[in-house]
Amino acid sequence: MYIPVILGTAREGRQSENAAKFIHAEAAKFGFQTELIDVRDYRIPATDNTQQSPTAKKLEEKISRADGFIIVSPEYNHGYPGELKMMLDLLYQQYAYKPLGICGVSGGPIGGARMAEQLREVAVELHMVPIREAVYFPLVQNLFDEKGNIKDKAYYERIKPFFSELEWYARALKVARESTKR
Ligand SMILES: Cc1cc2nc3c(=O)[nH]c(=O)nc-3n(C[C@H](O)[C@H](O)[C@H](O)COP(=O)(O)O)c2cc1C
Fold it and tell me: Residue 69: which of 33, 44, 41 has the closest Cα?
């Protein structure tokens, strides 16, 4: 199963990078084929004809090949970052009938849960299947040491149901896509 991890903010000094690297490393240990997709590498100035842009072409192969997705994103004013939405909007049918697992990151105590709820609605419009399980990183400024290692070891167990559910949907939907040619 190829499940890339999308890092949803390009902000200078972003704390979400620690969370995304942690999730990416654990996803690989879980057995997913994975890579980190950084929104910084897919930035566009505006939304004019972006589906025909070289940036969209650059992203297309990875999204087409994926069996599912993980998005690690901070919460900005209770929503997802604009650059994440602009990157997702570069493509459409390539996301279809594939599961999405969301990891929320926040400086406050809620862990990005409000962002995750909004992102699920966007995912449905892209014909993705957002899963119920999620991972939250509240008060992220306290969660990682200066080397980017997670300090709260409970996360190693906490993420397992998230990966398991994502794998279940990825397998089931792959069979369904192949048998129905979608
Ligand atoms: C524009 C902006 C809006 C933010 N809004 C929220 C918010 O609604 N809730 C929250 O808990 N933290 C909010 N934060 C704090 C971020 O969650 C915090 O910066 C955290 O470190 C994760 O984001 P980062 O990856 O950009 O560092 C906001 C940060 C920015 C830059």
Answer: 33
For residues 34 and 69, give the distance between their C-alpha atoms in angstroms, rounded to a whole number. Answer: 9
The conformational region for residue 139 under phi > 0 = left, psi -120 to 50 = alpha, else beta, is left
Structure tokens at 158: 């906490």
DSSP 67: S
Sorted by where each begins, the domain ranges of the chain are 5-180
Residue owning the nearest CA to atom 18 of ligand 1: 107
Q: What is the pLDDT of residues 49-99, one digit of tens each?
A: 888 899 999 999 999 999 999 999 999 999 999 999 999 999 999 999 999
5-180 placed in CATH 3.40.50.970 = no
3-state SS, residue 99: strand
- State the Cα–Cα distance between residues 121 and 181, nearest whole angstrom: 25
Residue 109 CA: which ligand 1 atom is closest? Answer: 11
What pTM value is reported for the model?
Answer: 0.97
Atom of ligand 1 nearest to the CA of 77: 8
**Does position 39 have pLDDT exceeding 90, yes or no?**
yes
Any atom of ligand 1 within 6 Å of the Cβ of 107: yes
The token pair at 53 is 């842009």
Number of residues that make up the chain: 182
